[in-house]
From TrEMBL, chains B, C:
Protein name per Swiss-Prot or TrEMBL: ABC transporter permease subunit
Family: Belongs to the binding-protein-dependent transport system permease family.
Protein's organism: Ramlibacter agri
Pfam families: BPD_transp_1
SUPFAM superfamilies in UniProt: MetI-like
One GO cellular component term noted in the UniProt record for this chain: plasma membrane
TrEMBL record, chains D, E:
Organism of provenance: Ramlibacter agri
Domain ABC transporter, chain residue ranges per copy: 13-246
CDD domains cross-referenced by the UniProt entry: ABC_NrtD_SsuB_transporters (cd03293)
Protein name: ABC transporter ATP-binding protein
Keywords in alphabetical order: ATP-binding, Cell membrane, Membrane, Nucleotide-binding, Transport
Amino acid sequence: ETQEVRVAEQFGLVYLPLTVMRDRKLLEKRAAEAGLKDLQVKWSRFSGSAQMTDAILSGSLDFASGAYANFSVLWDKTHGAVKGVTQVGIGPVWLMSVDPRIKSIKDYGPKDRIALPAVKVSTQALILQMQAARDFGLDSYARLDANTVAMGHPDAVAMLSSGKTEVKSHFSAPPYQAMELKNGAHKVLDSYDVFGGPHGSSIVFAPVKFHDANPKTFKAFVQAYNDAIELINTRPAEAAEIYKRTSNDKESIEEIVRQLKDPQVVSFKMEPLNLTKISDFMYATKRLQAKPARWQDVFFPELQDYVKE
Amino acid sequence: MHDIQPAAARRPEYVLPEAPPAAAGEVQRELSPWEKFWGNALARRLVVLAVLAIAWESYSRVVQNPLLFPTFTDTCVAFWRGMASGELPQRIANSLGVLAMGYGIGLAVAALLTTFAVTTRIGTDFLSTATAMLNPLPAIALLPLALLWFGLGTPSTLVVLLHSVIWPVALNTHSGFLSVSDTLRMAGQNYGLRGVRFIVLILVPAAFPSILTGMKIGWAFAWRTLIAAELVFGSNGGGGGLGWYIFENRNQMETANVFAGLLAVIIIGLLVESLVFRTVENATVRKWGMQR
Amino acid sequence: MHDIQPAAARRPEYVLPEAPPAAAGEVQRELSPWEKFWGNALARRLVVLAVLAIAWESYSRVVQNPLLFPTFTDTCVAFWRGMASGELPQRIANSLGVLAMGYGIGLAVAALLTTFAVTTRIGTDFLSTATAMLNPLPAIALLPLALLWFGLGTPSTLVVLLHSVIWPVALNTHSGFLSVSDTLRMAGQNYGLRGVRFIVLILVPAAFPSILTGMKIGWAFAWRTLIAAELVFGSNGGGGGLGWYIFENRNQMETANVFAGLLAVIIIGLLVESLVFRTVENATVRKWGMQR
Amino acid sequence: MQRDLPAAATPLLQVQGVTLQYRTGRHLVTATQRVSFEVHRGDRFVLLGPSGCGKSTLLKAVGGFMAPVEGQIRLDGREVRGAGPDRMMVFQEFDQLLPWKTVRQNVMFPLLASRRVARAEAAARAVKYIAKVGLDQFADLHPHMLSGGMKQRVAIARAMAMEPAMLLMDEPYAALDALTRRKMQRELLRLWDDTRFTALFVTHSIEEAIIVGTRILVLSPHPGRVRAELDSVTEGPGSPGFGALQARIEEMLFAPGQAAQEPVHA
Amino acid sequence: MQRDLPAAATPLLQVQGVTLQYRTGRHLVTATQRVSFEVHRGDRFVLLGPSGCGKSTLLKAVGGFMAPVEGQIRLDGREVRGAGPDRMMVFQEFDQLLPWKTVRQNVMFPLLASRRVARAEAAARAVKYIAKVGLDQFADLHPHMLSGGMKQRVAIARAMAMEPAMLLMDEPYAALDALTRRKMQRELLRLWDDTRFTALFVTHSIEEAIIVGTRILVLSPHPGRVRAELDSVTEGPGSPGFGALQARIEEMLFAPGQAAQEPVHA
Ligand SMILES: Nc1ncnc2c1ncn2[C@@H]1O[C@H](COP(=O)(O)OP(=O)(O)OP(=O)(O)O)[C@@H](O)[C@H]1O
Ligand SMILES: Nc1ncnc2c1ncn2[C@@H]1O[C@H](COP(=O)(O)OP(=O)(O)OP(=O)(O)O)[C@@H](O)[C@H]1O
Ligand SMILES: [Mg+2]
Ligand SMILES: [Mg+2]
């Protein structure tokens, strides 16, 4: 069993369980219970998913967190050498626009620009493609790709708020979409409508090699993660305080608590929810060679214990 | 105090008849084949390249992690496929177009800045202050401004490119200008050259070694920045350039293709160095005896 | 054919008595206050800075988009707050630590490469080939290798930093070496200087203007790259540096803080230029008459 | 033969109480101190003085490359404010040729740069003057392939090809062997016969000063001040007048106790 | 006074059939062609010849900066393979001083760099030789603040301070005025009296060749070949022997029809 475990954190409320885990040293506690004294947990943060993938591949990282779409490619390419550990937050992402002309994605003309985190490959881009496939037929799923431009969420919010640029739509994410709603933008597309209900989009994943070599540590991680979710669900104020403190968020504790309790913003559950719809779509559009039939194919069996049917 | 010819008596004086020079022509020692081979710069360079390629191939075979670091042969295959399919050439063309534009404008702006700097005192201060302030700024600092001014698309990419080209070229050019010897300056002034004519006819050729170095550095950093900017900006409209090709393939974890894209950058770098910069060097600073 | 003194008869010859030189000392014209002010480089620089600050302030007021482009005053306030809270100094210290290390190692490696390049022919070819190939490569090309070798953390960041420092410094140094005049080279060889002593005692000082330019460019690009690398790599362990500070605040949409971070980069750039590079320049190339 | 020179009322060049200084960092070097002299049209005026006495500096000031800190330099009555192609300078340094131009291009360059003549005429003059300095064989080489003396000859050809009203020459023949030097001196005098330019000529050879000059200004050692202004003689070297003048100048320059005739070999 | 020189069997320097060429790009310039001569220990050997005949190139080859394409150069019986502090060179160019060192440091530098003497001794020698060339006042200036002649004097001081076995001097006094030049010549001869070094000396002044040299090699114009090797005379300038030798060399150098005595002024 390893002496040190390296975990990647991410920004945002969606990844709150990881933040809580770190702040409350939950992993260290669970590991100690399993007899692994003095387990060192090294937390790191990335801003790009590609770098995280590199880190996993080079063996510099044990637990990564990120979009399920990116993970699927990794899983596919490594023929299952990397598997999911748990789903992180569940929540909708909204396509926002300040252009009153635009009510649905069918209203986008060739000149209308949509900002999203990364063209073609981000979760937002996939959801847009899924809707396009539905509206224009599977062959035309990429029709709106030409309208999209890559831009960080903060920049996109600023562009929309200025209202003077050619970018009048933004496929957003919490908490930016709520901000934009407040600033007078309207919702064009809700991912819950695309998926037919709540869905996850990001997960924690780990190399099979690590899982097999460190079963106790791995188990401790899953337990700790569950502990974190429980803390959030039972003591939201405490979780909100942790979030505010570690992220320097400007929102008040009350507002964060409200968001944590609002399933339209974020909720937490380890069991993967509708994730396979993403991989199915990627398979259908030839971006995956293999398709997981059930989520159990791509997640470690430890997760099964936390599935509440 | 002393005598002039202590040992002279021993040696006879002699005077030879005047004669036309022997048909000297070219006197040359015969070189061994190895010396001939080694004396050829191209041969030595190919050896260097071969050694690097072998190092790549063998290390990647040791690492055995094709998703992170593919072998040289895999990369070559991917490169070949990309070229054959016409996709890579298209992407390269897109990138080179933007690159050439950014590089050209960058050189022009650098020329203006340094002209301003050598003709006026406030220009000197402006150049050194602006360089000290702006050169260390990362590209992201410029993006908001670029977006504000030009919106999305090529112009914003150009701004970021310019930021990479202008400063190294201007710094090298200006430092080269300052190093031009007083004698040459005075010679130029003596012929009534002033202002821009003085710069173009005297300072630029006299500082050419420095300017060339600045242009090499600017060129390399333009490439780097373009790839990075395409990664960030993504493709806007058109098919996207080499950076976008790399980004897409990275997301698809087609690592061999990613390295094929990088290989394209390397090959273009080598071609530009050997076809453009080396030719220019041979035709200028080498020929002029300003560099060995 | 011609006469010697056509008009000489008109002018008398004269011989003055030998005299010690008049106590000449310093003859100086009186300058107007404006000339005095303008003659002061610091004053001119401050004017340049003030103009830039005013331009920033007024443009940002016109744009009226504090999320994208905050005013200069807001940025100053944010900068002040950041400094007062101790957070900004901490981040700056973190970044500067890595930067200094990367820069130092980069200079050392560049020195090795150029030493190799001027002492052996294959070294020359290696340097020019490697520069042409690697210099245009974006940092992402190095990341996989860096991760493989060093894992996450400072060493990998260092690799990326080195990539920014080595090539411009090596290029400028090498080009400077090549421009050293044959006479100086022969003088050095005449004293029995060979190899490293020849380089250190003759080539380096003789090529110092070029080397300094390379160091300035390397320094600026080290900064740029560090900020970018911190953005990509994020923070590992420690509190993170200035780049991470900028990224965090960008995510939080605290644009004034983002610009405060950039302002810190600018201020450090100015300080390094005026305290380090300018001092070195004055004590070396200016004093030696190698640059005006 | 021509005795009818333009006997202008004002001298072409008036140097009045000129002090020249170099300031570099902490150092202040006074090169010349209150030097005054006048050069008339058609003069071949020689500056003679020990090494470091400020001859080159004076020439640079007349050339307009340096401003006096005291005194005035007037050309044709107007104060000299900058350099120009009316005063062609031959510098003392070997690096005055443009390294990026061949010998021929170097000679043509000032003609073209100053827009004096058309390209064809410039080329013709280049051929002529390169032949005069004996470098026909080397016309298409770059300066770095020339010997020291050859470089100086190119510089001389370059200045003469401009056929300027005023020629400023700073030890132009110092790097030349006796034969070439004599040939160059002859060429200069021949050109003077043709165009009657005004020359300001620095030399450290007393003999050369008398041969080339019509009027000789003798400067004292560092910092340079005027010691004497003398007329040259018409007779050639070896004649009594020549010898007398030479002896007089030598006495003036060589401090007492260091007589010129002191045998070198004991 | 000392007549007991080391009468070594082999000459110190043997130059045997040496051809020197420069190759730059397309151009191939032959500087000297099959030049042979021998310099004995204690000789003051002068190379005399017209501008561009390859004197500097020959000196560079002896200095070890250039390899002959034909023939051999042997020093003490061994082939010259590189430069070294046993042969101190004074170059013809003004830029031979290290610009980043003051006059004093420039003079000390070879002593320290070649690890000949300790720092204190180097400093003492610097003071001594800087005084000999009359630059005491300028010891702490950097070379760019010196006049052309002053730079050459620093280079001379630098070479003499090394007190080398062999001194290679390329027109060292060309930029000096008559007085300074004579003083320098005297200093050289005085030093030779003390240390009996061997000197190879390039000059273009026939007079200087006779004054300074014990043996004179006359070279023909480009490409340089040997015309004559002559003994110098002991008598000083003005003496009949001196005059006769001078006339002989002049006749040799100045092509027929261009007699040396041809009057310069028609
Ligand atoms: N660039 C400079 N900076 C500072 N001082 C200088 C500079 N050039 C010359 N000097 C000083 O000015 C004085 C005169 O120099 P100048 O070159 O005019 O002498 P010169 O008479 O031409 O001597 P030479 O016959 O040796 O060429 C010298 O004392 C020298 O030290
Ligand atoms: N670096 C070089 N490259 C090519 N050719 C050269 C180079 N230096 C000198 N030469 C040529 O070699 C020949 C001899 O040059 P060198 O400098 O030895 O002449 P020199 O006898 O010293 O003349 P001077 O008295 O003018 O100094 C000349 O014809 C010249 O053109
Ligand atoms: Mg001078
Ligand atoms: Mg020579």
